[in-house]
Amino acid sequence: MKLAGMLLLLAGWGLVVSAVALFSRSGTRGWFVLAGLGVELLGLVLAFRGGANLPREAK
Amino acid sequence: VTYDLPLFVCTVLVAMVPLALAGLVVMNAGLGRTRSAAHSMLASMAAIAVAALAYCIVGFCWEGVSGGPVHTLTVAGRTWVWGGRAPFCLGGVWGGAPRVALQVLLQVFAVGIAALIPLSAGADRWRLSASCFSTALLAGWTYPLFAHWVWGGGWLAQLGSNYGLGRGFLDAGGASTVQVVGGLTALSIVWIIGPRRGKYAEGGIAPAIPGHNIVYVLFGAFLIVPGWIALNAAGAILFAGVAPAQTALIALNTLLCACSACLAALIITRIRFGKPDASLSANGWVSGLVASSAVCAFVSPWLAIGVGLIAGGLVTAAVELLELRLAVDDPGGAISVHAVAGIWGLLAVGFFVRGQLLAQVVGVATLLGVVLPMSYGLNWLLNRVSPQRTGREGERLGMDLHELGAGAYPEFVIHNDEFVDRY
Predict the structure, then answer these.
(1) Closest CA to A16 of B369, B150, B373
(2) Which pTM value belongs to this model?
(3) How many angstroms away from the CA of B370 is the closest CA of chain A?
(4) Nearest one of B231, B224, B212, B190 to B14, comparing CA atoms
(5) Quick one: which of B172, B147, B58 has its CA closest to B366?
(6) Residue B77 confidence (pLDDT)
(7) Rounded Cα distance, B309 and B349, in Å
(8) B71 — phi, psi (to 5°)?
(9) Which of A1, A25, B220, B404 is a plausible cystine mate for B27, CB 3.0–4.6 Å?
(10) Nearest to B190 by CA among B332, B55, B320
(11) Could you tell me if B35 and B401 are in contact, meaning their C-beta atoms sit under 8 angstroms apart?
(12) Rounded to 5 degrees, what are φ and ψ at B200?
């Protein structure tokens, strides 16, 4: 879960950077940047869910 | 003899920054437990020392200075600067321009602040040697790389000239380079070392483990202020190109942000819990300072008050969310104070400075998408080589006795551990 979260964080950043580099129209670029940020937030949620299992394991 | 007034002003400001370090160290110690107080202070001193050396030996060569030699990458016909290419061991600083030496000195203090943030989150269970190795990774690689992107003329700073995104990613006082980088490293550390024993016991109830000395916490919060004002002003002048004449406005914005954030936290905790919470209010105060690092040079005092109010509210919510819902045991609230408030400050620049929002969002996305995975990966590898968490006995005895052989308060008899039955 944690690894998947980290990969999604990286993928989201890749989307953001690609949007900045490839699109020149501000509207398209903005939506793709937001989409990348959304993917990152999904990754963050997954990473936190992976971390939330720790206490039970460490008990 | 001619005098360079801006350089003199900057020198005075940089010389005041260690007060921020001292304040954070005292706060961290106060927010931890009695049996780990000496360990907390020594670990802070060691972290600052390791960070300074690692940055000067290796880190500065990745960061370099704006306008210096760089590593580049060409993407879709445009040049992206991804790293500095200065010589190792501060080559070129000796005998060079005084301004460069001053920038290095400020960076040494700044990386020291970044190194103190994870210590707060790993309190009571993070081994001294492991914290030193982790700090070396932070100061030698993670911090300088990101700082180059923002302060060294890297690709985030060039978003404006390359792609027309406002003035590029803006961060005057180190909200991203120092605070969010430190906060995300703290999150990585907490994920790796896990919570303190007894924090999440059977039944899923997370008891509060209060800091051992709230006077230290509040005194530290006061002590931080002059250092933080100096950090924001010096950073804005040396890295963001703000005129030295703006120093008073930066100081005012910094202070107003801290005051409003503290009051917001105080009022919210009074409403939520029936009485104001001193430690959360102190954390609110620091969260205002953190948010001010991003906005201090770019907004009016009224907007600074608004940014502080939201930062204080966010911190109280984030502390509760992380501790109770997401099972992130962060004794000092470092992740909420430094990462959450820092990200808010950076986004606030986008909201309040015209044409700046997309550049700020790209910067925040880079922090979450690159710095967090990189910091987690590096510390995960370090943990495979040498476990970062102390053993069960270390937590039972306390880090002072276990790692240092003596307690911080030898004349006190420490007993009645509230969690001893759960071992």
Answers:
(1) B369
(2) 0.94
(3) 6
(4) B231
(5) B147
(6) 84
(7) 15
(8) -95, 135
(9) B220
(10) B332
(11) yes
(12) -120, 80
Our CA angle for B122, B20, B279, nearest 5°, is 55
Span B61-82, mean pLDDT?
Answer: 87
The answer to whether the CB atoms of A30 and B369 lie below 8 A apart is no
Q: Is B419 on the interface with A (CB under 8 A)?
A: no
Cβ contacts of B329 on chain A, cutoff 8 Å? 55
Among B163, B195, B369, the residue with its CB nearest the CB of A13 is: B369
* Residues of A whose CB is below 8 A from B376: 2, 6
Task: Provide Rg for chain B, Cα atoms.
Answer: 21
Record: contact A9-B191, CB cut-off 8 A: no
Q: Which residue is associated with the tokens 């954070």? A: B24
Helix (H, G, I), strand (E, B) or coil at B407: coil
Q: What would the two tokens of residue B104 be?
A: 């290095």
Phi first, then psi, for residue B74 (nearest 5°) are: -100, 120
pLDDT of residue B4: 76
Which of B146, B156, B159, B368 to mutate to probe the A interface, most A CBs <10 Å? Answer: B368
The string of pLDDT tens digits covering residues B259-302 is 999 999 999 999 999 999 999 999 999 999 999 999 999 999 99
Classified as helix, coil or strand, A12 is helix
- Residue B416 class from Cβ within 10 Å (0-12 exposed, 13-18 middle, 19+ buried)? exposed
What amino acid occupies position B98? P
How large is the angle between the packed helices B301-320 and B278-295, nearest 10 degrees? 130
User: CB–CB of B157/B168 below 8 Å?
Assistant: yes
Residue type (1 letter), B380: W
C-beta separation of B398 from B35 below 8 A? yes
| DSSP structure string for B118-131 | HHHHTTTTB-HHHH
- Residue B406, SS3 per DSSP: coil
Residue reference for tokens 């990152």 = A40
ipTM of the complex: 0.92
- Do B344 and B311 form a contact (C-beta atoms < 8 A)? yes
B201 touches chain A (CB under 8 A): yes
Say if the Cβ atoms of B190 and A34 lie within 8 Å: no
The residue type found at B225 is: V
B207 touches chain A (CB under 8 A): no
pLDDT for res B89: 85
Let me know: does B33 contact B199? Beta carbons within 8 Å.
no
